[in-house]
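Record type: ASSEMBLY
Status: queued
Input:
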Amino acid sequence: MRTFSSFPLLVLIAAAALVPRAATAAVDAHASALAALSDVRASIGEIVRIEDGDAVGHGAYLRAAHRALNALVGRRDDGYVAAFGDPGDGTGTLGHLDAMLDTEGTSLWTPAVDGAKANVLAAAGNLADSMHEKQMEDYQADLTHAIANLALVTGRASQTGVFGGLSGALANTSLGVPAGATVVSGCGPASGTPAYGVVAGRLAYVAVSRAAASTALPPDLSVSRIVVRGGGLVLYTSAAADAASLCRQSSRREPSRRERARDVAGQSFPALYTASQAHAGAAVYRQYCIQCHGVDLQGTAGPGVAGKEFLSSAQGNGWTLGDLRTLIFENMPFSNPGSLTPKQYAAVTAFLLASNCYPAGAAPFPTTAQASFAHVKIVTPKGARPPAKNGVCPVR
Amino acid sequence: MMRLTRGVSAVACIAIVSLITTPRLLADAPWPTADSFVNAAADASNWVLPAHDYSGNRYVAGAKIAPDNVANLKKAWSTKIDARGPLETSPIVWNGTMYVTSSHNDVYALDAASGAIKWHFHYTPHVIAFSANRGVALGDGKVYEATLDGHLIALDATTGKTVWNVVAAKDTKNTFYTMQPVPYKNMLILGASNGDWGGIGYVTAFDAATGKRVWDWNTIPGPGEPGHDSWSGDSWKRGGGAVWSGVAIDPSSDTLYVDAGNPQPDFLGTIRKGANLYTNSMIALDISGAKPKIKWYRQFIPHDTHDWDPAMPPVLFTGTVGGASRKLVAAGDKGGNFWVLDAGDGSVVYHLAVSTQKGQSTEPDRAGDVACPNTNGGVEFNGGSYLAETNTFYVPSVDQCGIWKSAGTATYINGQFYLGGSFPPQNGPSTGYINAVDVSTGKFAWRKHLEFPQIGGALSLSTGVVFTGGVNGDFSAYSAKDGSVLWHFPTGMTIQAPPASYALGGKQYVVIAAGPAGINFADPRLHQGAPTLEGTYSHPATAAITAFALP
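Status: finished
Output:
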């Protein structure tokens, strides 16, 4: 039996293209997103109930898996079995997501919805698998994977892109604006009157009246800042900083050097490996990787794995340390994936982090997957000063 | 045996005439024209299309190199080029100049007589997964190349300077180009390589003057199109079906023969129930109008879960089957099948296994099971060649098994494989075959088992010589009639490019590109200094174009 990383792969679109689209919310999309979220929660509810409950017998578990699947896929799918009942609304998460994706053009929230859909399909696969399991522990493993995948569909309000899932898209993009609501440009100071401030598809803030709860808020809103203005409150979202940066660009003011540096570095870095581990990893690299990725790590038959070119594609694609770990541990070496020992994989990962100028620390890169890796973006580390022109830091 | 020998001398006489007359007329134009392309089969001096002519058949009529003199073949020149990855280039030769590419899209114009570099275009594309390029197109004073970062570039054929450079791929995060563009009626036909990265395959015609799109044809039918119901739910949206390899064209009917690659996620079939059209299919498209129309399709492996796409470029030929002459089209897939279809309606005339086949009906699961061939097995991307003189099809193959596992889930990540598992590690030995298939019966005329995988594609000469190369770098000439080795040359590098032929000053040349091994073909036996047929695998970090001629 294959072991799985405890946290599924995530997609993070860090540099989503700016979409030149009118900053108005698609009426149906907003309603569909809320309904999709509701169906996901109904599905999760079924799984949690059977896992927490004390039901015995194969039938109860089969029924729970079917009900959870029904809520996800909806009536029009082949996998839907009406006899088991449906805790969702019948359209299913997939039905709602499809309705959103089938509309003309792409929006800033499209990648999040695309990702949510991929994760729904993955969870549906887990649930379908569970129906054929003979052993209880296999059944439970399937459900655990399903829950993990559905957690990504729900996402988190503090992030956009696929990490943010549906909650993130509702909280940070024009998807969060209900039909008929007042939409204003999110550039410049917010007025005291209730409105949604939108900049190039990003929901920068929601201005609400203190007197009346007249403004519908997205189901989860990650408020980064609250400003009291006039008779109301302006709730700035997680996307507010990004929106403000866009406003500055459009007013043709060059960002300051400090701002630029902050955008590139993005975050500060934990020490992820030890120097001696990276040294050992260099030997692993020479033996198993060098043939395709090159002496200078710039790629020969395979792609580059360190330096400017690598980091720019990692940022463009929104890769996380979790993604990188999966690629190395599960897909490499390309000609014989999974053939190294966990210790060798960890060492070569340490070597690659060091070559990309990540700082060494006291603890080695672990041989097992860590959920936190999904939150570490692969970007140029803060303060990195690679001596080489190609941006690779030497490893001793 | 006797019949062949007599046939050869008759053909050789015609050859001398054709080398002196017809090609010179064709080459009078400063650059190849629409006529040069349509009549390329008769032109032994030049090599103007990826497989010599539109049929896709790597065959030379009127050859001078023959079974009785090939033993004297000597290296004429060898020119080192950019060695950042494997060479898969199919040279284009016109009026004494040869145009080749490196894996990272460097383009070279070489003097075809001496190998001297006339100009060199350097490029540094972003590499999504692996580096490879199969060569350029030439026309109207321009050299056209499609790149690893999804661009289509036109260079001045005289100077190598950029004329235009357009972003041609629809999604450059998961799509790149390895295919050699094919010029046809002021258009460039080009397929997108995105079959394992979560895209949908398509073939595009670009305006050769400007690089603007003329039409696109998606290999995966969308809602409302016939075949769409062969995909469960919305799995079609990342369904794969890349157009990797070459195409064949029948100019008399404006028919484009194109192969679409495997479905994805490659190894996880449960989330894409159905036959998954038109993955793993050959499609005959009518390209006479504003938009391509399907004439017929033939799906070789429905609902594939092993990445067994029809990698071999289609070869159109007129062969004799059971005593009757028929227009046929050949295909080969990585599942180890060689197919001969009726070119008119796509019906299967016959197919046969050219590699060991095992465990093919089992979908990969989490526990893993052995199946053959491996993803890099069967018939590979340079395909084979039909020789009318023997009514035989020569196709190299790879014999290798793998251990297949699916992951249970598949998640799309920009710019990464979308597999639902991982590529299978090799299980057991890795060898190759040269297969000679008697077109009349669909059975082997002969087979030769070789120590290393054979992916270099075959070039057949009218005189009865077949050239091909192995991953260990041995470039060999085989007797078309019995497979005996007539000549070989150890390049010391890996051959995964197809041979080509041209003539200059009355002399016939055969040319081959060799270089470092590609990621699919890195073989643990091929360390520096490993023995090969007659030499050693001595230059793993070198890439070179080498031409051979009779003294």
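Annotation: The longest helix of chain B spans residues 2-20.
Annotation: Helices of chain B lie at 2-20, 22-26, 34-38.
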